[in-house]
Amino acid sequence: MGKIGFILAILLLISWTGYSQAKKTPAYYFQRGEDALNKKEYMSALAHFNECLRLDNHYSEAYRLRAITREHLGDKDKALVDYNIYVSLIPTDVEALFSRAVLRFESDQYMLARLDFLNLLKLPPGETNTVYFSQEKYNDSNAKIFTAHSAGKDHLYNYLGLIETKLKRYDKAIEWLDSAIKVSSTNASYYINRGSARLNKNDKNGAIKDFDDALKLDPDNSLALHNLATLRSAAGENSSSEKLLTEAIEKNKDLPYPRSERAYLRLQRNDLAGALEDYDEVVRIEPLADENYFNRGLVKERMKDLTGALGDFTKAVSINDKNEKSWLSRGNVLSKLGRWDEAIEDYTVAISLASDYGLAYYNRAIANQSSGKLTYACSDLKVAEKYGVKADVKIREKICK
Q1: Alpha-carbon distance 8 to 317, whole Å?
Q2: Residue 327 CB: number of other CB atoms within 10 A?
Q3: DSSP character for 131?
Q4: Which has the closest alpha carbon to 195: 167, 219, 165, 234?
Q5: Which residues contact 32 (CB under 8 A, 6 or more apart)?
Q6: Is there a contact between 236 and 262 (Cβ–Cβ < 8 Å)?
Q7: Which terminal residue of the chain, N or C, has fewer Cβ atoms less than 10 Å from its own Cβ?
Q8: How does strand 131-133 pair with strand 145-147?
Q9: Above pLDDT 70, what percent of the chain?
């Protein structure tokens, strides 16, 4: 009996295991993925949605939720692939189409985003649980919550206006933003966006009016303050511009633009310590933007902090190795440190990126001359002159003997 009981126990165990495995259907993994997504356990959610779709690659809702999961994980390219599959299966899902449109816009796919937003104008609102925030990046002073279901057409008009601005079709951009303002005349962001389009069209008076109107609606709007300050700075009103920039910074300490603009003004009047303080903050806010390290490197170079400048220019080229000015600037610091061969390498990279970069040829000529390579130095000097960088007569005679 004991042996029979043992065999029965094994059979029961095998049967239960088989039953347990049978339960793990695509729907099982989908539910697990949805639960993990709701708990913000994104890696776990991704694994479950992957398994769901491995078992059933037509499980449409899994594509949509996996797209959302991948967005949270910062994988925009794969999120877009999932949205594309889902929308091809469910083309009238307003929420998914809106999500894809926004993601395409954020990924600089402006023509495709435009097509999605135009299609959304033709579709009736759908049910949704997804919450969106109508705010510019960093500018949280006038954030409003909406869903794809509750959003009026003004949000769609606004996005279409932003897209046309990106495409440099400013008249069309202004038309769309006019429509957004007609639907919702109390949204400061729409006036800011229209002001930016007008500014790009060289309508400075119209832009100033829009930024002023935005501030009437939202006196704490740091982006509007920044834009007005930039306009005044361009007009030579540096003192009033810096005052506006300081006000913008105080209202939103995480907005990089006014700090960067104020740093530039401080640099212009040789307030190097103030400029450095601002650029330090800009780098903190946007640590992956190469131009921030480049600008801070220029300040450090003027402060005779060559080691610090070299570090910033090195960081700039590590983030973006296609900017010839960063390579030139790092070469200049290396030259000042007497590291001629390394400087020559950097100038050479700058020239490879911009073959008519006269200043890079000139500086490489000086570096070649300093390292005793007079033939190369003379050749570079002649090319520099060809591209408009004239050498002092004494320098030319010394290099090209």
Answers
A1: 70
A2: 26
A3: E
A4: 165
A5: 44, 48
A6: no
A7: N
A8: antiparallel
A9: 85
Q: Does this model's pTM top 0.70?
A: no
Residue 128 DSSP SS3: coil
Q: Which two tokens stand for residue 217?
A: 């609606």
Quick: pLDDT tens for 63-117. 999 999 999 999 999 999 999 999 999 998 999 999 999 999 999 999 999 999 9
Q: Domains, the chain, ranges and CATH?
A: 23-91 (1.25.40.10), 94-219 (1.25.40.10)
145, β-bridge pairs? 133
| CB contact at 8 A, 301 and 332 | yes
Q: Give the 3-state secondary structure of residue 359.
A: helix
Bridge partners, residue 147, by sequence: 131
> What is the three-class DSSP state of 391?
coil
The confidence score (pLDDT) of residue 114 equals 97
CB 335 within 8 A of CB 366: yes
129/371 Cα distance (integer angstroms): 67
Helices (H), 90-221: 94-106, 110-122, 153-166, 170-183, 188-200, 204-217
Identity at 307, one-letter amino acid code: T
Query: What does each C-alpha distance from 51 to 26, 28, 32, 66, 244 come to in angstroms?
Result: 7, 10, 10, 11, 54
Instruction: Return the amino acid letter for 254.
Output: D
